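Trying the structure run again after the queue cleared.
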Amino acid sequence: MEKHIVTTPQAPTPIGPYSQGVLKNRLLFISGQIPIDPKTGQVLAPDIEAETKQVMENLKAILLQAGMNFGHVMKTTIYLKDMRLFSKVNEVYGIYFESNFPARETVEVSGLPRDVSIQISVIAME
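Done. Tokens:
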């Protein structure tokens, strides 16, 4: 079975040589999303809550394009520039999951694309 590239205009256009998502054998791998507004192509970063919401909305758009939702998410990886933002990120992140939460790790990094504070990648399964 070939891999299927998942793409939607409802999420930001990739800023490098990668795909928004790749689907193979019922597994969906979503590239790390940052808080770019797909309508304007601009970073939406007034505060960490708004950044996190935009990232989650970008992930949601890619999941929907693949016929999935957050209930299909098996694992997430959260990259933060400052771990002190974790509790605020966690509050917004938690709104998107109802139960049966995915596995997750959160790591602090020294920098992210476009100098944002957060990036999240996802693995989901049909």
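The beta strands are 4-6, 21-24, 27-33, 73-80, 103-108, 118-125. Worth checking whether this holds up in the mutant runs.
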